[in-house]
Amino acid sequence: RTVYVNGEYLPENEARVSVFDRGFLMADGVYEVTSVLDGKLVDFDGHAVRLDRSLSELSMRAPVTRDELLQIHRELVARNDLTDGLVYLQITRGAPADRDFAFPDPDEVPPTIVLFTQSKPGLADAPAAKTGIKVISIDDIRWGRRDIKTVQLLYPSMGKMMAKAKGCDDAWMVEDGYVTEGTSNNAYIVKDGRIVTRPKSNDILHGITRAAVLRYAAEAQMEVDERPFTLEEAKAADEAFVTSASTFVMPVVEIDGTPVGTGAPGPVAARLREIYLEESRKAAI
Ligand code: PMP
């Protein structure tokens, strides 16, 4: 694989980052994952806008312009012959001369920018979309700025492991009885034809797929309620699903061992997935 590090395209085994990089020492960095379908980037602008927001919330500067970022994404897709897959982008606060809690002066320490691709043949035809996934619920013990897409992913990673240990695919996180989101996706339920999802706040990541799906749902005259929902409501719902850039719209068929609705993927999730994939392919650049 060819990867990108601080202005250079290199074979992955020649790419280097300092041991003093604050991303490595302190998870002081942000990331984005953009999907690639038929060699084109899905919702690049959405990811670029959220990246800028994450950076500004952490008083970090973008090391490249938006146009340059698009060029780097495209160059990596081309150099790696990527048809279907993902482009991972990470920007950290760089590598000061020594470890220190205080932020370094950004004029002296430039951010570190790394991008690489992940090939996922058949990304849009994942078998799980037909069968649905099973989730467990876990306490949401993450910090209070989940709207910033930082690389602090230890708890979501542990959540995935807790799910796997129970023979499930993912975990939904719960705070004060209400579902916040999945470990790496936004969560939804469907009850009596209405789609319910938690509103945007500092409690959840503002998913790029979420924004697109809610827009398409509105265009298709589907009813959407942006409000928190409880775990109990979710277990009693007609359908449940999650959205993310890498899984698009993915049905959830079981929560803590309780089947959701019929226990099979439902029509609303299936329809949204179809619309999302169709519109995303059309708009991809
Ligand atoms: N919530 C969390 C916690 C996530 O990690 C992700 C994916 N990175 C999402 C939601 C979905 O966001 P997006 O649709 O932009 O991939």
Automatic annotation (TrEMBL):
It catalyses: L-isoleucine + 2-oxoglutarate = (S)-3-methyl-2-oxopentanoate + L-glutamate; L-valine + 2-oxoglutarate = 3-methyl-2-oxobutanoate + L-glutamate; L-leucine + 2-oxoglutarate = 4-methyl-2-oxopentanoate + L-glutamate. The keyword Amino-acid biosynthesis applies. Its cofactor is pyridoxal 5'-phosphate. InterPro entries: Aminotrans_IV, Aminotrans_IV_CS, Aminotransferase-like, BCAT-like_C, BCAT-like_N, Class-IV_PLP-Dep_Aminotrnsfr. Its EC number is 2.6.1.42. PANTHER family: AMINO-ACID AMINOTRANSFERASE (PTHR42743), AMINODEOXYCHORISMATE LYASE (PTHR42743:SF11). Belongs to the class-IV pyridoxal-phosphate-dependent aminotransferase family. This is Probable branched-chain-amino-acid aminotransferase. It comes from Rhodosalinus halophilus.
